[in-house]
Amino acid sequence: MGETAPGTTQETPAEDLVAEIEAVEAKLAQAKASITRRFVGQEQVVDLTLSSLLCGGHALLIGLPGLGKTRLVETLSTVMGLDGNRIQFTPDLMPADILGSEVLETGEDGSRAFRFLQGPIFCQLLMADEINRASPRTQSALLQAMQEKVVTVAGEDRELGRPFHVLATQNPIEQEGTYPLPEAQLDRFLVKIDVRYPDRDTERAILLSTTGATEDEAHAIFTAEELIAAQSLLRRMPVGESIVELILDLVRACRPDDATAPARVRETVSWGPGPRAAQALMLTVRARAMLQGRLAPAPEDVLAMAQPVLSHRMGLNFAARARGDDVDGLIAEIAQDVIGGVAKGSGAAA
Length: 350
Known about the structure:
The protein is an alpha/beta fold and 350 residues long. 48% of the residues lie in helices and 15% in strands. It has a five-stranded parallel sheet. A two-stranded antiparallel sheet has the order 3-4.
């Protein structure tokens, strides 16, 4: 119960660490309240997006037009104190339109020199709107930026803003003229967030809050420096050894070629999550615990983060797709089995 993972505090967290975590949790509660006043009724979406920022990662938002994805990103930029830019991805968008380019300038004395003009990627929070509408060549311009936080233009490495996050959106139904994201790029998104239709009460609240003479405005709660400090603090949050084992069991159970994988995974899954998925789960369960005002993650955090972290890192085989099998449903079953098995084992040990 009190055991901790290697590399984390072996005893009860020190008072100063507890105080730091509680202070960040209080600011996160303020940030969430400010965001949900403008992005009404989608608490899970807000939690997952904030989790990706706390973990220093990127998020892919999947949802139909008109569900407020752009509004969410704009509000996040203000509340978290980040310099944000937006790019509308289109088939004719070129890599230079994202990264920037060098131009030849002539000085007053007639001398000529190249000057680099920064593209919109040089910011702290980039909204990549309808990312799958750009060509693979343009999509690939984001790969280095998302992984290394630098871009190479004209043979020179140029650092991006700190912190640097990409929040990309994608329409799940209109696929004509789109280019599906390759697995390598999907894997660079920490979480995939499904933005669904609101229920009736939520839609009523949206109508009343957004069609009047005035609207709630977002206010800065964090600064970029405070967010970086929170990201560092997150990695110091202790994680129990049992949670680490739970994460490993879950990720490995989703790989069809793993000996521990259940039969339905071997029969339906073409490719499974890699070590980056386990890293993402390790970070996001901490973020969820912090957003809920707790000092360490619990098994319910692993269960809640399984689908957002794993669903875009797995692929069903042809037979499973033909039957209409669903990745999210499969992940939910596996996670329930893994966590239930741990609970039974703990009960037997007790």
